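Instructor's aside before we start: the two examples that follow are unrelated to each other. I chose them only because their records fit on one page, so don't look for a connection. First example below.
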Amino acid sequence: MSRQNKYAELETALGCKFRDQDLLVRALTHGSVRQSANKRIDNERLEFLGDRVLGLVVAEHLHKSLPDVREGDLARRFNALVCGDTCAEVGKEIDLGRFLILSSSEADNGGREKETILADAVEAILGAVFLDRDFDAAKRVVHAIWGERLDEITTTKVDPKSALQEWAQSQSLRLPRYTEISRTGPDHNPCFVAEVSVEGIEPQQGEGSSKRSAQQEAARALLVREGVWREKNKA
């Protein structure tokens, strides 16, 4: 399989086709490869750049979408969107681990599922898109793979996932983690079951017609169960 075909599925998920495939390969190359093969190529410099690109995209989005929100609230929303946990979640959603270039030892140690490696690679890809194309292209990729997160966090009505995330942060807990438990039904009318877990708290499941709606229902149910929300807050 040619390199171009190898990464075609990832480029489709990103909504961006690279002119310089070497940039994409570098973005996917973990530092363990450099250490094991004595090579200088890895994604650390691209990660540095991509972190800044992501920050500017999100800051611009929040500034435009929330003209009446004060700086402190903007900062909380910003941090929730650009933190490592969110970047890792995005990486999992686009199945990024499958494309990572790791040393054999890192791969054997579960590197394709490690959240820090996934988060760093997501940022590196954004840096690579910026260099390969321009800022507008990087912005389009962020909007494509962050998806509804950007809209949910700017809506005037607080959605359950955002509310749960803010509550977890207020309790100094790690961000909630979502797992797809099952998918049943025909393609035109699927039913998803998702589970949300927060450290130290019993997990909660929710059901919906999409992955996202199932996650929202799981978050809502957990908030109600823990007494953070009353039923009247149901979206």
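Example two begins here.
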Amino acid sequence: MKRHDHIEPELKVFFHYKDLKAGNKMEIYFPTRDPSTSPHLLSKHESDAIPFSSSQLSYILHLLSFSEGSKQANAMTDTLHHCEFPPIKGEAKFCATSLESMFDSLHKIFGPSSKFRVLTTTYLSDSISPLQNYTISEAPMEIPAPKIVGCHTLPYPYAVFYCHGQESDNKVYKVVVEGEDGGRVEAAAMCHMDTSQWDPTHNAFRALRSVPGASPVCHFFPSDNLVWLPVT
């Protein structure tokens, strides 16, 4: 039995820092999403016209024609609470519903006149099995950056990105992996070197059988996530 067989596929993005080396094999979940059916970011004008607060959830559901208690309403509730949860010590976080608001928040973190670039996970093959064993085919390339902000998509009727960065020591990598079916992925990966302030119930600790502060936590980013780095 594989070590993580009891773990949901969605958690098979987490891995140990010591495993980040060429030749290592690990089971990874890279979800395949159709961009044509995925929610898109609104314009700032559209975003500003719709409240984004759990205190106004009933009005939002009415505005977007969802019924209370529905699957969509429950997902929206979870997303709003996730966005409103206070940051942990040393963390900067925000939720963006438009590209303009994302850039405004990034400038607050990186500096008002800063320039930044984005790193994403790219599928190098036409067809990728979502869950399979992958081998790290090249030495992982670390991308030095004084600050890193990772943005993850959250379920909502339109695109919502949950973005966060910590002052603690984080490392970001480009990692080329090859699956058992021959599919290749150039994956963005981040390693959080200090997890002492993390919630003990974080899924990473269950996936890696670890606890806060015991060891670094690394994870791959899905293809629809964004990693922002300052241009130096």
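The two ends are 46 Å apart (CA to CA).
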